[in-house]
Write a structure and sequence with these properties.
With 246 residues, the chain is an alpha/beta fold. The chain has eight helices and five strands. Helix 6 links the parallel strand 2 (119-124) and strand 3 (151-156).
Length: 246
């Protein structure tokens, strides 16, 4: 009977020719992989994410100002990415203003137009004393200039839907692909008469009109409250005139 032989091994993890022979014959286990490459890769990825976060939302001029502070190769890559985004948005920016609507043209200017882009309609108040409606008119103008790839429209609520309740103004209707996706009645889902343009960024992201990382969205500081509260609402107050949405 063969007797086991004790093979002398000083350090089984050492990179020696003797250990290589022993590993080849299965006398000692394979050397475990070095964690160094994994650690280095994790560190580089962490640095990339931190840098990307710092650059997020900056325009081209702001990126140029960071040339002496940030990694040149990554900065150039990020600048090219931003130029591609700008080119895509510029090509899609067909609107850039608030479009007044007439009820006879509603199907063409809203429903059919929503096959090309997201269309947001503001049903305005008939009363000049409705603060929220007046505020939304100003916000609409700012949003239209900023997000030219989204079509913003306005029409007086009672001219669009006969007998439309004044208490429901302002109302926001969201259209896409020929259908109405959402209805928001007054600005209670935002901050009432304290609503600002920035409060609509979350809405535009939620409906898919813009991407979450769109550079046009103001960066939200950590811990800042989100003022828009998403609710999946559909038109339900049109009475006998519901079919005008089509």
């Amino acid at each position: 009977m063969d007797m086991p032989v004790n093979v002398p091994v000083d350090n089984p993890n050492a990179d020696t020719e003797w250990n290589d022979i022993l590993r080849k014959h299965g006398i000692i286990p394979e050397k475990p992989p070095s964690p160094t490459p994994i650690i280095e890769e994790a560190i580089l990825e962490g640095r990339r994410l931190v840098l990307e976060k710092r650059l997020e939302g900056k325009d081209l001029d702001e990126l140029d100002e960071l040339e002496d502070e940030e990694d040149e190769e990554f900065l150039e890559k990020y600048r090219k990415q931003r130029l591609e985004e700008l080119s895509t948005i510029t090509k899609a920016s067909l609107y850039g203003q608030v479009y007044p609507l007439q009820k006879p043209d509603y199907s063409r200017d809203v429903t059919e137009a929503s096959n090309l882009a997201f269309v947001l309609v503001h049903l305005t108040s008939a009363l000049g004393t409705n603060i929220e409606s007046r505020l939304l008119t100003e916000i609409w103008r700012e949003l239209a200039r900023k997000f030219g790839d989204v079509k913003f429209c306005e029409i007086r609520g009672d001219l669009c839907i006969e007998g439309y309740p004044e208490r429901n103004c302002p109302t926001i209707l969201v259209y896409h692909n020929g259908e109405i996706l959402q209805q928001i009645i007054t600005l209670k889902q935002f901050r009432g008469d304290g609503t600002s343009t920035e409060d609509f960024s979350r809405l535009l992201v939620d409906i898919g009109a813009i991407k979450p990382n769109d550079y046009r969205i103001p960066r939200q500081a950590e811990g800042d409250p989100v003022h828009y509260k998403h609710r999946d609402t559909k038109p339900n107050d049109g009475g006998d005139d519901d079919d005008w949405y089509d």
